[in-house]
Structures are given as structure tokens and as C-alpha cells.
């Protein structure tokens, strides 16, 4: 393998490991509010403004089918509701109910504690650098994928 292949593989394996680690943290934070990490992820996507399922999927980088399944579970549990979408006749908007907003709020204190612990361990400047670099990596991968599609 070339040095660049080793770098790509190293980045991918690290990001896969980070994904698992962040999912574990999210599960721990969400559980006391009666949510899973996936439920929290979908609720978090619509907490500020309702979105169609496809919009949530794009924002979260997951499949539309996965979001639909989770949104249906959340709707059955009274955490979200489907609303008419003025921009599209068939694609309903997913919106949080007061119960869903309250569940996300219950996660807030533990989320703040963990954020403080992580930023203390890394240092605020390094934490900001990590955030910036991960966003840059994601944007670069998106641009490369767009090149391949176009």
C-alpha cells in the first residue's frame, strides 16, 4: 500500500471507531430520557424546525428508510407528529411534540457534563480544532462524492 492508502485506511478506521464510541456515549445520555441514540438523533434534527424525512436523512448522513422507521416509532410514542408540508404534497414534515421537546431537554444536563469532561480532557482549543478538522474532512468527502456523481 502507498503512504496515502495507509492514511486513508487509518482515517476510516479511526472514524468508524469514533462513530461507535459516540454512539455508546449517546445511548448512555439518551437512555434516562427514554430515548435511544437514534431517536435522539432524529428528534435533534427537527427540534428547531420541522423537516421531511429525506431532509433529516441528508442532514444526518443516514438512509431515508432508517429515518422513516425511527420517525414512525417516535410518532407512535408521541414524540413527533407528521404535519402537512406546503412545499410537497406527499412528503410530510416531521415535527417534535411537546413530549419530544421535553425528552431532549432532559438529556441536556448530562450532555453538558460530558461536554465539559471531554473539553477538559482535550483542552478547548484542541476540541475546537478536532471539530473543525472533522467538519473539513466531511465536506471534502462530500465534494469528492459530488465530483464522482457529476
UniProtKB/TrEMBL annotation:
Where do the HTH marR-type domain residues begin and end? 4-139
Q: Superkingdom of this entry's organism?
A: Bacteria
Check the record and name the PROSITE patterns matching this protein. HTH_MARR_2
- InterPro entries registered for this protein in UniProt: HTH_MarR-typ, MarR/SlyA-like, WH-like_DNA-bd_sf, WH_DNA-bd_sf
Question: SMART domains annotated for this entry?
Answer: HTH_MARR (SM00347)
GO biological process: one example: response to stress
- What does the record give under GO molecular function? DNA-binding transcription factor activity
| The protein, known as | MarR family transcriptional regulator
**What is the originating organism of this protein?**
Glycomyces luteolus
Amino acid at each position: 500500500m502507498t503512504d496515502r492508502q495507509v492514511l486513508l485506511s487509518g482515517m476510516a478506521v479511526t472514524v468508524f471507531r469514533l462513530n461507535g464510541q459516540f454512539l455508546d456515549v449517546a445511548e448512555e445520555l439518551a437512555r434516562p430520557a427514554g430515548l435511544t441514540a437514534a431517536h435522539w438523533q432524529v428528534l435533534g434534527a427537527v427540534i428547531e424546525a420541522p423537516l421531511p424525512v429525506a431532509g433529516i436523512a441528508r442532514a444526518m448522513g443516514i438512509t431515508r428508510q432508517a429515518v422513516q422507521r425511527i420517525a414512525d416509532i417516535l410518532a407512535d410514542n408521541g414524540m413527533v407528529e407528521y404535519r402537512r408540508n406546503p412545499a410537497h404534497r406527499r412528503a410530510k414534515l416531521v415535527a417534535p411534540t411537546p413530549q419530544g421537546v421535553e425528552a431532549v431537554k432532559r438529556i441536556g444536563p448530562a450532555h453538558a457534563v460530558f461536554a465539559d469532561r471531554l473539553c477538559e480532557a482535550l483542552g478547548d482549543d484542541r476540541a475546537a480544532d478536532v471539530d473543525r478538522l472533522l467538519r473539513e474532512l466531511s465536506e471534502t468527502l462530500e465534494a469528492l462524492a459530488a465530483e464522482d456523481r457529476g
